[in-house]
Amino acid sequence: MLRVGLTGGLGSGKTTVARLLGERGAYILNADEMGRALMQPGTSAFARIVAAFGPAVVALDGTLDRPALGRLAFQGGRIEELNAIVHPATIAQQAAEIERIARRDRKAIVVVESALIFESRHGDLSRFDKLVLVTAPEPLKIARFTARTGLSAGEARQRLARQIPDEQKMDRVDYVLPNDGSLAELEERVDALWRELQPWA
Ligand SMILES: CC(C)(COP(=O)(O)OP(=O)(O)OC[C@H]1O[C@@H](n2cnc3c(N)ncnc32)[C@H](O)[C@@H]1O)[C@@H](O)C(=O)NCCC(=O)NCCS
Ligand SMILES: Nc1ncnc2c1ncn2[C@@H]1O[C@H](COP(=O)(O)OP(=O)(O)OP(=O)(O)O)[C@@H](O)[C@H]1O
Q: What's the total number of domains in the chain?
């Protein structure tokens, strides 16, 4: 069993890397998806978010209005408040999932994909055996993010401002995957990474 923390700033391409690792046989846990599932109506996180941020974050269909919550959290300087509600439950769920996978596959390579492995004060790095960082120049990150989400470059910058720069993370990880070229180049780098991870599993 090998627990890999896969991180990278917004638009770096970490979801793409996770997908490629998944195709090669890794188990993938996606922190964004887990966070989203934990914030569904009826959960305690949902109730706490509405209590803290007000009814304006509930959409007409009763689910969270994520753009509205994003604006309040990032532009309103309240992202730490939201993190404190969502992160502990997400990290606990990651630990539970890793346990569950370990019980049925002792040779599993489990990849936890999260933008915030270094930033979150709610989880520590010792829960991973190896750390992988996906990097890209900031303008490229912003271009990918705005194309994927439809949010503005300003909104992308606000989120990036809450993320530690790649340069400060590079010395603290086991592998760096630059993603500033084609998808074919990225795939070659993922193949090399996958080969490196095998002996450790
Ligand atoms: C603010 C929210 C509602 C905005 O939702 P939205 O659908 O617009 O974005 P999504 O969740 O898909 O995130 C997209 C990207 O934004 C960046 N981002 C998201 N949350 C954060 C954060 N707390 N700090 C810094 N960057 C963040 C990441 O690069 C992420 O990959 C949502 O991001 C959220 O609930 N964030 C707080 C919880 C969190 O940290 N989730 C991510 C991992 S658990
Ligand atoms: N090397 C590449 N060439 C072309 N497009 C790419 C490349 N890498 C990623 N992309 C595209 O850029 C967008 C962002 O990539 P991805 O979703 O993997 O990044 P992310 O780091 O998970 O981003 P976010 O933090 O915004 O969720 C996607 O639409 C993806 O298909």
A: 1
Q: Determine the structural domain holding residue 146 and report its residue range.
A: 2-37+87-200
Taking only the tens place, the pLDDT of each residue in 153-188 is 999 999 999 999 999 999 999 999 999 999 999 999
Protein residue closest via CA to atom 13 of ligand 2: 144
* Calpha distance 155→159 (Å, rounded): 6
Asked if residue 10 is part of any domain, the answer here is: yes
**pTM, full prediction:** 0.95
DSSP annotation of 133 reads: E
Which uninterrupted H or E stretch holds 140?
Answer: helix 138-149
User: How far away, in angstroms, is 31 Cα from ligand 2 center?
Assistant: 16
Whether the CB of 31 sits within 6 Å of ligand 1: yes
Query: Is there an atom of ligand 1 within 6 Å of 10 CB?
Result: yes
